[in-house]
Design brief:
alpha/beta, 3 helices
Length: 86
């Protein structure tokens, strides 16, 4: 997979209100950025659910996770909650 030469990472994508994050991702997609990177940390959304939410708002950009913990109870608790964030 080609992630392009220029991507974007900003901690706000994992913490911003869902509508704002989707709008920003769509704008980056329109501007031609190849990849949007997400992270996981205190106060952030579960990264795989967040990636699904942002992919639904875009058409070409790829979503990558820089840090994603695959272990622990948070996987089950927060994944569904992130998808229902308005």
């Amino acid at each position: 997979m080609d992630n392009g030469r220029i991507g974007v990472w900003h901690p706000s994508f994992s913490r911003a209100p869902a509508p704002l994050a989707r709008e920003a991702a769509a704008r980056l997609d329109e501007l031609g950025y190849a990849t949007l990177w997400l992270n996981e940390g205190p106060g952030s959304r579960e990264p795989f659910a967040a990636a699904a939410m942002l992919l639904a708002a875009t058409s070409k950009i790829k979503i990558g996770t820089g840090i994603a913990n695959i272990w622990g109870p948070r996987r089950h608790r927060d994944g569904g909650r992130a998808l229902h964030t308005r």
